[in-house]
Amino acid sequence: NAGVMQNPRHLVRRRGQEARLRCSPMKGHSHVYWYRQLPEEGLKFMVYLQKENIIDESGMPKERFSAEFPKEGPSILRIQQVVRGDSAAYFCASSPGLGGERQETQYFGPGTRLLVL
Amino acid sequence: DAKTTQPNSMESNEEEPVHLPCNHSTISGTDYIHWYRQLPSQGPEYVIHGLTSNVNNRMASLAIAEDRKSSTLILHRATLRDAAVYYCILRRAGSARQLTFGSGTQLTVLP
User: Fold this and answer.
1) Chain A residues with CB inside 8 Å of B97's CB?
2) Considering CB atoms only, which of A45, A101, A103 is closest to B98?
3) Which one of A21, A64, B79, B107 counts the least CB within 10 Å of its CB?
4) Would an 8 Å CB–CB cutoff place A5 in contact with chain B?
């Protein structure tokens, strides 16, 4: 059973360009989370999605950032008009989405390291 | 979610036990205690979680104080591959699903 896959693993963009980060959750998982880790800082939650729905985007910057998790295909985190401050490691995690009160484990991908020049 | 406090760093010798403490004095009755770790240049990895009773799995043990205001992650025999940042996270049952990471404890394992 393949784990959470993210691509690309490394992405270099110039200021003003767009960055698209992809995340394929573990097989059978319907919940996806995106986290960002700025250099020398801890991980910060960005957005939580279920298939075709954004459940919680309280950690997303209000502008330039968007996320989707379509019915088919990977989850996409999109950053428009990137700035140097967007340079960070972006991690995706998935969980089964069993519902109820269960304390589900989140399984993380290897991350995408974005460098904005 | 309630706040946790962990030492910034700890050292251990290889093949010796390691006790990583976590204080959570404002924990509520429905807060679960989770531990994740992040190896260098990798994504976080689940280690263990518990509510009231001590827990064991193949990776570690979790000892929870009787008043639940603190807990300890125990690695029984540290290896060089256990060098990582260890995060203690509280998650309230039925609350938002995302994890709230603090600064964690950087564990260095000495050969």
Assistant:
1) 31, 33, 48, 55-56, 95, 104
2) A45
3) B79
4) no
Give A65-74's long-range contacts (Cβ < 8 A, gap of 24+): A67/A34, A69/A32, A74/A22, A74/A23, A74/A24, A74/A25
Q: What token pair was written down for A88?
A: 């960070």
Counting beta carbons within 10 angstroms of the beta carbon of residue B109, is it exposed (0 to 12), middle (13 to 18) or buried (19 or more)? Answer: buried
Query: What would the pLDDT profile of A29-69 be if each residue is shown by its tens digit?
Result: 989 999 999 988 889 999 999 989 999 999 999 999 999 99
The rounded distance, in Å, linking the Cα atoms of B26 and B28 is: 6
pLDDT 10s digits, A14-39: 999 999 999 999 998 989 999 999 98
